[in-house]
Amino acid sequence: MKKRTMFKLMNLVTAGNFDNINWGANNYFIQTEFDEQGGSNYQIMGISQLLSVPYALYSKTSGSADASIWNTNSSSIYYNQGNVGIGETTPTGKLVVKSDTTALNDDVIFCVLNAQGDTVLAVYQEGVRINVSDNPAKATGSKGGFAVGGFSPSKGTFTNEYLRVTPDSVRVYIEENNTAKATSSKGGFAVGGFSPSKSGYSDEYLRVTNDSVKVSKSLYIPRLSTAERDSLGFTPSDALIIFNTTDECMEIYKNGVWSNIWCFHCAPTIITQPFEANICNGQDTSFTISATGTSLSYQWQISIDGGINWNSISDGGSSPVYLGSNSWSLSLSNIQSGSNGYLYRCKVLSSCPPEVYSNIVSLNVGTDTLSVTSQPANQQIISGCEASFNISTSSYGICQWQQSSDGGNTWNNIANGGTAPAFAGATSYNLVISNVPVSYNGYKYRCVVTNLCGTGANSNNATLNISNPVASAASSIDHFSFTANWTAVSGVLGYYLDVSTASDFSSFVTGYNNLNVGNVTIYNVTGLSAATNYYFRIRLNIACGGSVNSNVISVTTSAFAVGDSYGGGVIFYVDVTGQHGLISATSDQSASAQWGCWGTSISGADGLIVGTGSQNTIDIETGCTAAGGASDIVANLGLNGNNAWEQYFGNGNQNSSQKNYTDYVRAIRSF
Predict the structure, then answer these.
(1) Which of 142, 494, 517, 647 is most buried (most C-beta within 10 Å)?
(2) Phi-psi region at 205: left, alpha or beta (left = phi > 0; alpha = psi -120 to 50)
(3) How many angstroms separate the first and last alpha carbons of the chain?
(4) Nearest 5°: phi and psi at 353?
(5) Mean pLDDT, to the nearest integer, of 416-440?
(6) Which domains are assigned to the chain?
(7) Residue among 364, 345, 360, 506 at smallest CA distance from 427
(8) Are 339 and 320 in contact (CB under 8 A)?
(9) How many Cα atoms are found within 13 Å in the side-chain-facing hemisphere of 624?
(10) pTM of the predicted protein model
């Protein structure tokens, strides 16, 4: 068994003076050594940190300077002699807490915890955070959430609450009977920015006092769509203000309704237009619109003359009885058939101009009797143009137009649209058919009329007749021209003429491609060639555009024949083409004329075939300048504006003779 020795400290031997130790400068420890023989051979018994007892000496010493700096009151401690700094050696206020220079943005400088250890208030490098319990039940008391309130001069109790933040709301209270307490720059409650030099506040973002709430940067207003606003799940408090993102308007809730305060689109804009009303005699109906704008007002109007004149409506009357003439919905009751066809519209105004008008709608009142009082008429139109069929009835009805392509044996409903033809008004009293092709010639049309009162009637049948341009045979045909003829079509502006030597009109005679010849039925085509096949066609010049081509007429110009008068003479020779030959003057140019230049040799003048005579004459005239010779006579002869050339015939044969021999001279030329 190990021997255990008990020691008792009887006397403490010390070296030095405890009073000279600066206990507040560092941590201190005591080392105990022991020599059981009483000599100087010590063994270490232990080392311990000096705690309470030595620090009491420091407290006593420090307290001896000014015992009133920190005082106690029961379990409380307080200080009344100056400012207290934590991390700051020269505090400028009663309590100044300064962060370490190495602290990060998320490091807390100062915080307040509740009994559960939750952070209620925390101060950071760049801001302050106040946390409110997210359990709504916790904030129901008067001290729940976060509040800024006023205080009474006695400082005993709070008098008013100016700002209160709870999990379910943010409330700002403004004192109606304001006082002068908050007029200084430090009155009320404010949130501001600070400058980098920390010398003062740079901006004030939020300031709440007993008489005002000032927001210098921005104020967040609840943003709700119309659908969200109308499905809040609770009844809003009066004077609640929101921004409606659907209408882009500031709205206030008052007396159970939302009203616009101001809108981005201040001028009125109609969003939903009214619809026409189709009813029976004695029934009720209404017209409704919706609009946006600031401070809207409405005025319904009526026209009983087809929209020429308009009058404002007032509530009341007898037939019909009006209600809501100055609202977005106009109600009509006790409506009689005499109101059939009345037109209605709504004028909408706001605090910003201009005023706007809704679409015009009609009041259609049917009865238990219905008949067609004005029948559709047959239509005669030009292919490619427009036709219309119209009816009227004894009372209001809905018209469905039908067409028949087999003479009225079968009928089919017409729908609006199409291109050739295009239909419009297929369910109205006026059917319009445009760009009608010739294939619709002979189609029949009728209107089947019904109403909501259970009655109906059919109109008579009407026929659509389409006129086309028709060309007829040419007349006055000669060698170089003919007259084109066609049948007149009423209602046209004129006609267009095409002439070609190709039956498919792949090319055109110069000047006759879509030639506007005016409003005539004949036209003389000139500048042609003899014995040539030509083709012509016409089109109508009409207001609704160009028509289809007519039928094609073929015509052949006349060929030349011996004995024909032409070019101031008589044809005595025609080649195989029927287009060329020789013409003789109709009389002799001389009964006794020499060739001339007897004894003079002529160069050239040796052409022997048809067509060289002209050059022969030129050669003779060049080599023989004597006047009165046969060549000179014919060279200077003008027949129908042409110069002639000569050839001598004796008894119908070509002969030669002396140049000084005289004989008859007659000029001929080629064509």
Answers:
(1) 517
(2) alpha
(3) 168
(4) -75, 165
(5) 94
(6) 1-81 (no CATH), 90-215 (no CATH), 223-263 (no CATH), 269-366 (2.60.40.10), 372-466 (2.60.40.10), 469-556 (2.60.40.10), 565-670 (no CATH)
(7) 364
(8) yes
(9) 28
(10) 0.43
CA–CA dist 402, 426 (Å, integer): 8
Q: CA angle 639-640-643, nearest 5°?
A: 50
List the one residue out of 399, 448, 451 whose CA is nearest residue 426.
399
Is the pLDDT higher at 116 or at 52?
116
In the chain, DSSP finds a helix count (H) and a strand count (E) of: 4, 58
In degrees, rounded to 5, the angle at the alpha carbon of residue 86 between the alpha carbons of residues 82 and 92 is 45
- pLDDT, mean of residues 331-347: 95
Alpha-carbon gap, residue 345 to 273, rounded angstroms: 9
Contacts of 256 (CB under 8 A, 6+ apart): none
Q: Would you put residue 405 in left (φ > 0), alpha (ψ -120 to 50) or beta? A: alpha
Q: Do residues 498 and 525 lie in contact, with contact meaning Cβ atoms separated by under 8 Å?
A: no
Contact in structure between 468 and 380 (CB atoms under 8 Å) = no
Residue 140 pLDDT greater than 70, yes or no:
no
- Exposure letters 386-398 (e unless 16+ CB within 10 A, then b): bbebbbebebbbb
Residue position matching structure tokens 């209160």: 164
Q: What is the DSSP letter of 6?
A: -
- Confidence bin at 415 (pLDDT 50/70/90): very high
The count of residues in the chain is: 671
Q: Compute the C-alpha angle 526/528/530, nearest 5°.
A: 125
Which structure tokens are listed for 74? 């029961």
3-state helix, strand, coil in the chain (%, to 5): 5, 40, 55
Say how many C-beta atoms besides its own lie within 10 A of residue 375's C-beta. Answer: 15
Given a cut of 90, is residue 533 above it in pLDDT? yes
Least confident of 101-105, 415-419, 428-432: 101-105
CA 665 to chain centre: 90
